[in-house]
Design a protein that fits this description.
- It is a single chain.
- Helix content is 31%, strand content 26%.
- It is of the alpha+beta class and 331 residues long.
- Strands 1, 2, 3, 4, 10, 11, 12 and 13 form an eight-stranded mixed β-sheet that branches.
- A hairpin with a 2-residue loop joins strand 11 and strand 12.
- Helix 1 runs antiparallel to helix 2, helix 4 (147-158) packs across helix 5 (176-185) and helix 6 (196-202) packs parallel to helix 7.
């Protein structure tokens, strides 16, 4: 095969949703059993097995960690069957491992893909400050502005009062001051224990009850979120956050600007991107995996950046048939 870049032309998201379905089905079998490591490993195994059959030459830019830390879906791993198109891949087999282990709402399996060389690699930067809104807030908010000004601007754009807005924030000690500022401005707050990919995407979903996401969360999750919000017409802004002097020094040494504000086009530099997510446990964004005598049901979101198409897919699976194709995740 030539080294010339072959870009994705077909809707890869419709194939990638099989990978998130497999991860969700595998993780759901361990839902509520208290072992987030086992649940995450089951999701990784299932996602990796299905990815092998996807027609693409992919490189994992954001995965489960470095090769010596993660036996599969590690950063730099080659994914797919090796045929064109050439892609960058970000995976989060479970966004919300604790939610899954505790049987709590809102855990999802996620993957994002873009053409080769277009996905931001966070390197040593594990965390970032985030601001996410749906289409009505795009171009209206600014992560550099005080919380109350952003809430006032968003309320005006949505033609509601600040008191009608709901902000989603990760429930962490580091957010005590942020939470106080949101409450001081008069907005409502939905605190989440994990899963800020789902929380950010919910800001762009009609009738989700969520208007804006604030706070510091994972940088890998931020890049994955950017792929979704590019398709949905929302806005996402991030600023890299160093947890200590050692991390700050490493990031600066590798050329990262910790003061720069990154937007959607900095994190995914193309419209040629795809996103898929499948619910593990039922939450505001997606229904979780459910079991009946007739089979297993899943619900997924599938998006394509170039067309802006967002699909909600309800699927029914017959385990006895799936086992004949691929045993991973369906037992």
């Amino acid at each position: 095969m030539s080294d010339e870049l072959v870009r994705p032309e077909r809707n890869l998201a419709l194939e990638l949703v099989r990978t998130t379905e497999a991860a969700a089905l595998a993780a759901a079998r361990l839902m509520g059993r208290g072992d987030k490591i086992e649940a995450d490993q089951a999701a990784v195994d299932a996602m990796r097995a299905v990815l092998d059959g996807v027609e693409m030459d992919g490189i994992v830019v954001i995965g489960e960690g470095e090769k010596d830390e993660a036996p599969m879906l590690y950063n730099g791993e080659r994914i797919g069957n090796g045929e064109p198109p050439m892609t960058d891949i970000a995976v989060d087999p479970i966004d919300g491992t604790t939610l899954t282990a505790k049987g709590q709402a809102g855990a999802i399996a996620v993957i994002a893909v873009s053409e080769r060389g277009t996905m931001f690699n966070p390197g040593p930067c594990v965390y970032m400050e985030k601001l996410a809104v749906g289409p009505s807030g795009a171009g209206i908010v600014d992560i550099r502005l005080p919380v109350d000004r952003n809430l006032t601007a968003l309320a005006k754009a949505k033609r509601v009062s600040v008191e009608d807005l709901t902000a989603v924030v990760l429930d962490r000690p580091r957010h005590e001051e942020l939470i106080a500022q949101i409450r001081g401005a008069g907005a409502r707050i939905r605190l989440i224990s994990d899963g800020d990919v789902a929380g950010a995407i919910a800001t762009a979903m009609p009738n989700s009850g969520v208007d804006i996401l604030f706070g510091i969360g994972g940088t890998p999750e931020g890049v994955i979120t950017a792929a979704a919000l590019k398709s949905m017409g929302g806005d996402f802004q991030g600023r890299l956050y160093a947890r200590n002097d050692e991390e700050r020094g490493q990031a600066i040494a590798e050329g990262y600007d910790l003061e720069a504000i990154m937007g959607l086009d900095d994190m995914i530099t193309t419209e040629n991107c795809f996103f898929a997510a499948t619910g593990i446990t039922t939450g505001d964004l997606l229904k979780g995996v459910t079991y009946t005598a007739d089979g297993i049901s899943t619900q997924s979101l599938v998006m394509r950046g170039r067309s802006g198409t967002v699909r909600l897919i309800d699927a029914h699976h017959r385990p006895e048939k799936l086992r004949n194709m691929d045993a991973v995740g369906y037992e």
